[in-house]
Amino acid sequence: MDDATPYAGAVDHYTSAARRDWVKRTWEEPALHRHLDAALRRARALGLPADVAVLDLGCGTGVGLDLLRGTAAVAAGDVRVARYTGLDLDADLLAVARDRLAGPEGPPPGVGAVALVRGDLADPPEVGPHDVLLSSGVPLSHLPPDALGPALTRVVTRAVPPGRTALLVVDVLGRWSLEWTSRWDRTRWAYRMSFFATDAAAEAAEMTTWDGEELERTVRTAVAAAGREVLDATRVDRSLAVGRHTSTGEYTPGLPRLRDLVDALAAGGGGDPAALRIAVPLPPAPPAVAAAHARLAVAWNTRLDAAGPAPDAAARRALAEDLRAVEAAQEPEGLGIGHSLTLFAVVGGGA
Ligand SMILES: C[S@@+](CC[C@H](N)C(=O)[O-])C[C@H]1O[C@@H](n2cnc3c(N)ncnc32)[C@H](O)[C@@H]1O
Fold this sequence. Notes:
Elements: H1 11-15, H2 22-45, E1 51-57, H3 63-69, H4 72-75, E2 80-88, H5 91-101, E3 114-118, E4 132-134, H6 145-159, E5 166-174, E6 188-192, E7 204-210, H7 212-225, E8 229-238, H8 258-266, H9 287-307, H10 313-330, E9 340-348
Parallel strand pairs: 1-2, 1-4, 2-3, 4-5, 5-7
Antiparallel strand pairs: 5-9, 6-7, 8-9
Helix pairs in contact: 6-7, 8-10, 9-10
The structure holds S-adenosylmethionine.
Protein backbone atom coordinates (compact mmCIF):
# COMPACT_ATOMS: atom_id res chain seq x y z
CA MET A 1 0.00 0.00 0.00
CA ASP A 2 1.33 3.45 -0.90
CA ASP A 3 2.40 5.24 2.29
CA ALA A 4 2.06 8.77 0.90
CA THR A 5 -1.29 10.41 1.66
CA PRO A 6 -2.23 14.08 1.45
CA TYR A 7 -2.38 14.02 5.23
CA ALA A 8 1.27 13.21 5.85
CA GLY A 9 2.23 15.45 8.78
CA ALA A 10 -1.37 16.46 9.55
CA VAL A 11 -1.37 14.94 13.03
CA ASP A 12 -0.42 18.31 14.54
CA HIS A 13 -3.44 19.95 12.91
CA TYR A 14 -5.92 17.29 13.95
CA THR A 15 -4.69 17.26 17.54
CA SER A 16 -4.31 21.05 17.96
CA ALA A 17 -6.66 22.99 20.22
CA ALA A 18 -6.76 25.83 17.63
CA ARG A 19 -8.69 23.55 15.24
CA ARG A 20 -11.73 23.75 17.51
CA ASP A 21 -12.42 27.47 17.11
CA TRP A 22 -15.75 29.06 18.11
CA VAL A 23 -17.34 28.32 14.74
CA LYS A 24 -16.32 24.66 14.97
CA ARG A 25 -17.55 24.28 18.55
CA THR A 26 -20.81 26.21 18.34
CA TRP A 27 -21.91 26.08 14.68
CA GLU A 28 -20.39 23.07 13.02
CA GLU A 29 -20.32 20.38 15.70
CA PRO A 30 -23.87 21.03 16.99
CA ALA A 31 -25.15 21.08 13.39
CA LEU A 32 -23.46 17.74 12.70
CA HIS A 33 -24.89 16.28 15.90
CA ARG A 34 -28.38 17.53 15.03
CA HIS A 35 -28.35 16.22 11.46
CA LEU A 36 -26.81 12.87 12.44
CA ASP A 37 -29.27 12.48 15.28
CA ALA A 38 -32.23 13.10 12.95
CA ALA A 39 -30.80 10.59 10.46
CA LEU A 40 -30.33 7.92 13.15
CA ARG A 41 -33.95 8.39 14.19
CA ARG A 42 -35.23 8.12 10.61
CA ALA A 43 -33.14 4.98 10.14
CA ARG A 44 -34.39 3.49 13.43
CA ALA A 45 -37.97 4.02 12.23
CA LEU A 46 -37.08 2.07 9.08
CA GLY A 47 -35.45 -0.88 10.86
CA LEU A 48 -31.95 0.16 11.98
CA PRO A 49 -31.19 -1.90 15.11
CA ALA A 50 -30.61 -0.11 18.43
CA ASP A 51 -27.19 -1.77 18.83
CA VAL A 52 -25.14 -0.71 15.85
CA ALA A 53 -21.79 -1.64 14.38
CA VAL A 54 -20.27 1.50 12.87
CA LEU A 55 -17.83 1.65 9.96
CA ASP A 56 -16.12 5.07 9.75
CA LEU A 57 -14.89 5.57 6.18
CA GLY A 58 -11.75 7.77 6.19
CA CYS A 59 -11.83 7.95 9.97
CA GLY A 60 -8.62 9.97 10.45
CA THR A 61 -8.22 10.39 14.21
CA GLY A 62 -11.65 8.83 14.84
CA VAL A 63 -13.72 12.03 14.92
CA GLY A 64 -16.75 10.13 13.57
CA LEU A 65 -17.06 8.24 16.83
CA ASP A 66 -16.99 11.50 18.80
CA LEU A 67 -19.73 12.86 16.53
CA LEU A 68 -21.94 9.83 17.04
CA ARG A 69 -21.42 9.92 20.79
CA GLY A 70 -22.47 13.59 20.70
CA THR A 71 -25.90 12.82 19.24
CA ALA A 72 -28.95 12.87 21.49
CA ALA A 73 -29.89 9.34 20.27
CA VAL A 74 -26.60 7.85 21.48
CA ALA A 75 -26.43 10.00 24.63
CA ALA A 76 -29.94 8.80 25.60
CA GLY A 77 -29.11 5.14 24.85
CA ASP A 78 -31.70 4.94 22.02
CA VAL A 79 -28.79 3.92 19.77
CA ARG A 80 -25.78 2.08 21.21
CA VAL A 81 -22.39 1.71 19.51
CA ALA A 82 -21.69 -2.01 19.92
CA ARG A 83 -18.63 -1.86 17.66
CA TYR A 84 -16.71 0.90 15.89
CA THR A 85 -14.38 0.18 12.98
CA GLY A 86 -12.29 3.08 11.68
CA LEU A 87 -10.89 2.71 8.16
CA ASP A 88 -8.19 5.03 6.80
CA LEU A 89 -5.16 5.04 4.55
CA ASP A 90 -2.99 7.25 6.75
CA ALA A 91 -0.96 5.27 9.30
CA ASP A 92 -0.11 8.35 11.44
CA LEU A 93 -3.74 9.45 11.79
CA LEU A 94 -4.77 5.85 12.54
CA ALA A 95 -2.12 5.76 15.29
CA VAL A 96 -3.72 8.83 16.91
CA ALA A 97 -7.13 7.15 16.66
CA ARG A 98 -5.70 3.98 18.22
CA ASP A 99 -4.19 5.93 21.15
CA ARG A 100 -7.42 7.83 21.73
CA LEU A 101 -9.98 5.07 21.26
CA ALA A 102 -8.27 1.72 21.69
CA GLY A 103 -5.64 2.35 24.37
CA PRO A 104 -5.03 0.24 27.48
CA GLU A 105 -8.06 1.79 29.21
CA GLY A 106 -10.31 0.29 26.53
CA PRO A 107 -12.97 1.90 24.33
CA PRO A 108 -14.73 5.15 25.31
CA PRO A 109 -17.73 4.82 27.67
CA GLY A 110 -20.75 3.27 25.98
CA VAL A 111 -18.73 1.82 23.09
CA GLY A 112 -18.46 -1.98 22.98
CA ALA A 113 -15.27 -2.41 20.94
CA VAL A 114 -12.99 -0.43 18.65
CA ALA A 115 -10.96 -1.66 15.67
CA LEU A 116 -8.78 0.47 13.39
CA VAL A 117 -8.01 -0.82 9.95
CA ARG A 118 -5.69 0.47 7.25
CA GLY A 119 -7.28 0.40 3.82
CA ASP A 120 -8.35 2.36 0.76
CA LEU A 121 -11.84 3.82 0.48
CA ALA A 122 -11.77 3.14 -3.24
CA ASP A 123 -11.70 -0.60 -2.55
CA PRO A 124 -12.38 -1.12 1.15
CA PRO A 125 -11.23 -4.39 2.71
CA GLU A 126 -13.69 -6.96 4.07
CA VAL A 127 -14.58 -5.77 7.57
CA GLY A 128 -17.75 -7.75 8.26
CA PRO A 129 -21.33 -6.52 8.62
CA HIS A 130 -21.99 -2.94 9.76
CA ASP A 131 -25.16 -0.92 10.36
CA VAL A 132 -23.90 2.66 10.13
CA LEU A 133 -21.50 3.47 7.29
CA LEU A 134 -20.27 6.87 8.34
CA SER A 135 -18.05 9.52 6.82
CA SER A 136 -17.19 12.92 8.24
CA GLY A 137 -14.72 15.63 7.28
CA VAL A 138 -15.19 15.03 3.53
CA PRO A 139 -12.94 11.94 3.07
CA LEU A 140 -15.02 10.73 0.10
CA SER A 141 -14.09 13.89 -1.82
CA HIS A 142 -10.63 12.36 -2.25
CA LEU A 143 -12.13 9.94 -4.77
CA PRO A 144 -12.50 11.04 -8.41
CA PRO A 145 -16.13 11.66 -9.47
CA ASP A 146 -16.44 8.36 -11.31
CA ALA A 147 -14.84 6.38 -8.45
CA LEU A 148 -17.30 7.35 -5.70
CA GLY A 149 -20.23 5.27 -6.97
CA PRO A 150 -18.24 2.04 -7.47
CA ALA A 151 -16.59 2.51 -4.03
CA LEU A 152 -20.00 2.89 -2.37
CA THR A 153 -21.35 -0.13 -4.24
CA ARG A 154 -18.42 -2.22 -2.93
CA VAL A 155 -18.78 -1.02 0.64
CA VAL A 156 -22.56 -1.54 0.73
CA THR A 157 -22.22 -5.00 -0.89
CA ARG A 158 -19.54 -6.05 1.60
CA ALA A 159 -20.75 -4.40 4.80
CA VAL A 160 -24.56 -4.48 4.63
CA PRO A 161 -26.04 -8.00 4.59
CA PRO A 162 -29.17 -8.39 2.41
CA GLY A 163 -32.33 -7.61 4.34
CA ARG A 164 -30.59 -5.44 6.96
CA THR A 165 -31.36 -1.74 7.31
CA ALA A 166 -28.28 0.50 7.43
CA LEU A 167 -27.55 4.22 7.54
CA LEU A 168 -25.06 5.45 4.94
CA VAL A 169 -23.59 8.93 5.52
CA VAL A 170 -21.77 10.41 2.53
CA ASP A 171 -19.87 13.57 3.41
CA VAL A 172 -18.15 15.52 0.60
CA LEU A 173 -17.08 19.05 -0.34
CA GLY A 174 -19.87 21.21 -1.74
CA ARG A 175 -19.37 22.20 -5.37
CA TRP A 176 -20.91 25.67 -4.99
CA SER A 177 -19.28 26.93 -1.79
CA LEU A 178 -18.60 30.65 -1.41
CA GLU A 179 -15.06 29.59 -0.45
CA TRP A 180 -14.11 28.58 -4.00
CA THR A 181 -16.12 30.50 -6.59
CA SER A 182 -13.07 30.45 -8.88
CA ARG A 183 -13.47 26.65 -9.02
CA TRP A 184 -17.23 26.43 -9.74
CA ASP A 185 -16.45 25.64 -13.37
CA ARG A 186 -14.95 22.22 -12.52
CA THR A 187 -15.57 19.32 -10.16
CA ARG A 188 -12.05 18.07 -9.38
CA TRP A 189 -9.18 20.38 -8.61
CA ALA A 190 -6.00 20.74 -6.60
CA TYR A 191 -7.21 21.64 -3.10
CA ARG A 192 -4.69 23.00 -0.61
CA MET A 193 -5.34 22.36 3.07
CA SER A 194 -3.72 25.69 3.76
CA PHE A 195 -5.97 26.24 6.78
CA PHE A 196 -4.12 23.54 8.73
CA ALA A 197 -2.79 24.68 12.09
CA THR A 198 0.68 23.85 10.75
CA ASP A 199 1.65 24.10 7.10
CA ALA A 200 3.25 20.67 7.11
CA ALA A 201 0.47 19.31 4.93
CA ALA A 202 -0.36 22.35 2.83
CA GLU A 203 0.44 20.53 -0.38
CA ALA A 204 -2.44 20.35 -2.82
CA ALA A 205 -4.51 17.16 -3.09
CA GLU A 206 -6.91 16.51 -5.95
CA MET A 207 -10.40 16.70 -4.43
CA THR A 208 -13.88 16.33 -5.96
CA THR A 209 -16.66 18.78 -5.12
CA TRP A 210 -20.30 17.74 -5.46
CA ASP A 211 -23.59 19.29 -6.47
CA GLY A 212 -26.42 18.04 -4.23
CA GLU A 213 -28.57 16.45 -6.93
CA GLU A 214 -25.57 14.90 -8.64
CA LEU A 215 -24.43 13.36 -5.35
CA GLU A 216 -27.87 11.94 -4.65
CA ARG A 217 -28.08 10.40 -8.15
CA THR A 218 -24.64 8.85 -7.69
CA VAL A 219 -25.50 7.36 -4.30
CA ARG A 220 -28.87 6.00 -5.48
CA THR A 221 -27.22 4.37 -8.51
CA ALA A 222 -24.46 2.89 -6.32
CA VAL A 223 -26.92 1.45 -3.82
CA ALA A 224 -29.05 -0.03 -6.63
CA ALA A 225 -25.91 -1.59 -8.16
CA ALA A 226 -25.35 -3.31 -4.80
CA GLY A 227 -28.86 -4.79 -5.10
CA ARG A 228 -30.22 -2.64 -2.27
CA GLU A 229 -32.76 0.19 -2.05
CA VAL A 230 -32.56 3.73 -0.71
CA LEU A 231 -35.50 3.88 1.72
CA ASP A 232 -34.92 7.54 2.65
CA ALA A 233 -32.46 10.18 1.43
CA THR A 234 -31.85 13.55 3.07
CA ARG A 235 -29.18 16.10 2.14
CA VAL A 236 -27.82 18.99 4.17
CA ASP A 237 -25.33 21.78 3.50
CA ARG A 238 -22.90 22.74 6.24
CA SER A 239 -20.75 25.84 6.81
CA LEU A 240 -22.35 28.00 4.13
CA ALA A 241 -20.62 31.26 4.99
CA VAL A 242 -17.85 30.21 7.37
CA GLY A 243 -16.05 27.23 5.80
CA ARG A 244 -12.34 26.90 6.64
CA HIS A 245 -11.28 28.40 3.31
CA THR A 246 -12.94 31.72 4.10
CA SER A 247 -9.95 32.17 6.45
CA THR A 248 -7.44 31.71 3.63
CA GLY A 249 -9.09 33.75 0.87
CA GLU A 250 -7.36 31.34 -1.48
CA TYR A 251 -10.07 30.51 -4.00
CA THR A 252 -12.54 33.44 -3.89
CA PRO A 253 -11.04 36.84 -4.61
CA GLY A 254 -12.62 39.58 -2.49
CA LEU A 255 -14.39 37.31 0.00
CA PRO A 256 -13.98 38.66 3.54
CA ARG A 257 -12.18 36.36 6.02
CA LEU A 258 -15.60 35.43 7.33
CA ARG A 259 -14.64 32.61 9.68
CA ASP A 260 -12.00 34.70 11.47
CA LEU A 261 -14.33 37.70 11.60
CA VAL A 262 -17.19 35.63 13.08
CA ASP A 263 -14.80 34.11 15.65
CA ALA A 264 -13.76 37.67 16.60
CA LEU A 265 -17.39 38.83 16.90
CA ALA A 266 -18.22 35.86 19.13
CA ALA A 267 -15.40 36.93 21.45
CA GLY A 268 -17.02 40.40 21.67
CA GLY A 269 -14.39 42.00 19.40
CA GLY A 270 -13.78 42.74 15.75
CA GLY A 271 -14.23 45.99 13.83
CA ASP A 272 -17.16 47.35 11.83
CA PRO A 273 -19.59 44.44 11.19
CA ALA A 274 -20.01 45.76 7.63
CA ALA A 275 -16.65 44.07 6.93
CA LEU A 276 -18.54 40.76 7.00
CA ARG A 277 -20.96 41.67 4.22
CA ILE A 278 -21.21 39.02 1.49
CA ALA A 279 -20.98 40.80 -1.85
CA VAL A 280 -18.71 38.74 -4.10
CA PRO A 281 -19.76 38.29 -7.73
CA LEU A 282 -20.93 34.75 -8.39
CA PRO A 283 -20.07 32.79 -11.54
CA PRO A 284 -22.77 30.95 -13.51
CA ALA A 285 -24.50 28.22 -11.49
CA PRO A 286 -27.82 26.32 -11.62
CA PRO A 287 -30.77 28.64 -10.82
CA ALA A 288 -31.53 26.98 -7.46
CA VAL A 289 -27.92 27.48 -6.37
CA ALA A 290 -27.83 31.12 -7.47
CA ALA A 291 -31.14 31.77 -5.69
CA ALA A 292 -29.94 30.10 -2.49
CA HIS A 293 -26.77 32.19 -2.42
CA ALA A 294 -28.81 35.34 -3.04
CA ARG A 295 -31.12 34.47 -0.10
CA LEU A 296 -28.15 33.78 2.16
CA ALA A 297 -26.44 37.08 1.26
CA VAL A 298 -29.64 39.12 1.79
CA ALA A 299 -30.41 37.55 5.18
CA TRP A 300 -26.77 37.77 6.32
CA ASN A 301 -26.21 41.37 5.16
CA THR A 302 -29.58 42.54 6.55
CA ARG A 303 -28.59 41.29 10.00
CA LEU A 304 -25.16 42.96 9.73
CA ASP A 305 -26.70 46.26 8.65
CA ALA A 306 -29.05 46.18 11.64
CA ALA A 307 -26.07 45.94 13.98
CA GLY A 308 -24.69 49.36 12.98
CA PRO A 309 -20.99 50.23 12.78
CA ALA A 310 -19.97 50.00 16.46
CA PRO A 311 -21.99 47.51 18.52
CA ASP A 312 -20.83 46.85 22.07
CA ALA A 313 -19.34 43.51 23.09
CA ALA A 314 -22.70 41.95 24.08
CA ALA A 315 -24.29 43.04 20.80
CA ARG A 316 -21.34 41.56 18.89
CA ARG A 317 -21.81 38.22 20.62
CA ALA A 318 -25.55 38.32 19.86
CA LEU A 319 -24.76 39.15 16.23
CA ALA A 320 -22.49 36.09 15.94
CA GLU A 321 -25.31 33.91 17.30
CA ASP A 322 -27.82 35.45 14.88
CA LEU A 323 -25.52 34.86 11.90
CA ARG A 324 -25.39 31.23 12.95
CA ALA A 325 -29.20 31.11 12.81
CA VAL A 326 -29.18 32.73 9.35
CA GLU A 327 -26.89 29.98 8.12
CA ALA A 328 -28.74 27.16 9.86
CA ALA A 329 -32.00 28.18 8.18
CA GLN A 330 -30.52 27.22 4.81
CA GLU A 331 -28.70 24.00 5.75
CA PRO A 332 -31.58 21.66 4.80
CA GLU A 333 -31.48 22.67 1.15
CA GLY A 334 -28.58 20.25 0.54
CA LEU A 335 -27.60 21.86 -2.78
CA GLY A 336 -23.83 21.74 -2.34
CA ILE A 337 -23.60 25.45 -1.38
CA GLY A 338 -21.58 24.91 1.80
CA HIS A 339 -18.09 23.74 2.66
CA SER A 340 -19.53 20.28 3.00
CA LEU A 341 -22.54 18.48 1.65
CA THR A 342 -23.82 15.45 3.54
CA LEU A 343 -26.23 12.87 2.23
CA PHE A 344 -27.90 10.55 4.74
CA ALA A 345 -29.31 7.47 3.02
CA VAL A 346 -31.24 4.74 4.78
CA VAL A 347 -30.42 1.56 2.89
CA GLY A 348 -32.48 -1.63 2.97
CA GLY A 349 -33.85 -4.40 0.83
CA GLY A 350 -31.94 -7.04 -1.07
CA ALA A 351 -33.21 -10.04 0.89
C1 LIG B 1 -10.28 15.60 6.25
S1 LIG B 1 -9.87 14.01 6.87
C2 LIG B 1 -11.29 13.58 7.82
C3 LIG B 1 -10.97 12.66 8.94
C4 LIG B 1 -12.11 12.38 9.91
N1 LIG B 1 -13.15 11.59 9.31
C5 LIG B 1 -12.65 13.65 10.51
O1 LIG B 1 -13.88 13.85 10.51
O2 LIG B 1 -11.85 14.45 11.01
C6 LIG B 1 -10.00 12.92 5.49
C7 LIG B 1 -9.46 11.53 5.79
O3 LIG B 1 -9.61 10.72 4.63
C8 LIG B 1 -8.49 9.86 4.57
N2 LIG B 1 -8.35 9.38 3.19
C9 LIG B 1 -8.11 10.11 2.08
N3 LIG B 1 -8.10 9.32 1.00
C10 LIG B 1 -8.34 8.06 1.44
C11 LIG B 1 -8.45 6.80 0.79
N4 LIG B 1 -8.34 6.68 -0.52
N5 LIG B 1 -8.71 5.72 1.56
C12 LIG B 1 -8.83 5.81 2.91
N6 LIG B 1 -8.73 6.99 3.57
C13 LIG B 1 -8.48 8.10 2.84
C14 LIG B 1 -7.32 10.72 5.01
O4 LIG B 1 -6.22 9.96 5.41
C15 LIG B 1 -7.97 11.50 6.16
O5 LIG B 1 -7.83 10.84 7.38
